[in-house]
Structures are given as structure tokens and as C-alpha cells.
Amino acid sequence: NLVWPMDTYASLALMLPVGLLAEYWSYHYTILLGLLCRMATRLLLLFGRGVGAMRLMQCSYAAAVGTETIAYFALPYIVLMDKPHLFAPATVAVRG
Known about the structure:
- The protein contains four helices and no strands.
- By secondary structure, it is an all-alpha fold.
- About 85% of the residues lie in helices and about 0% in strands.
């Protein structure tokens, strides 16, 4: 009961700030942040002890998933901004 809801609550709390961070900072740096959060998740899974570490692990995982959702699905459209005729193939590649 103490660990499971943290992923849900952290995802809810981080989705909008991660999107704003991606717009302000850069989508490439946001992807890098997501990769670092995934590494933090792995390290906490391997070396974390106790419920507090697992809650922190769930928060870092939620941040990684939030960056993945924002950056990976928006980045192809940002890259192809000047080529609107390629939006349909990009959509197939992203959702395919």
C-alpha cells in the first residue's frame, strides 16, 4: 500500500512539468533526463533498501515514463516541422 500509488501520483504530478520543461529546455535534453531517471530507477532497484527507496524508485520511473511520453511522441513532429508532407509517415512510425 505504501509503494504502489507513488508511480500513479508521481506520473500525474510530473506530466505537465515535463512537457513544459521539454518546450523550454529542449526535447533532446528531456530525453537525456528520462534516460538518467531510468538509470536512477535501476540503481535504486539494485541497491535501494526499504520502502523509502522503493517509493523514490517509483517516482524516478514515473519521471522517465513522463519524459518518454512527451519527448518520443512529440520529437518527430518537431523535427519534421518544415516538411508537413512527412507527418503521415511519422505518425505511422510513432504509433505503428
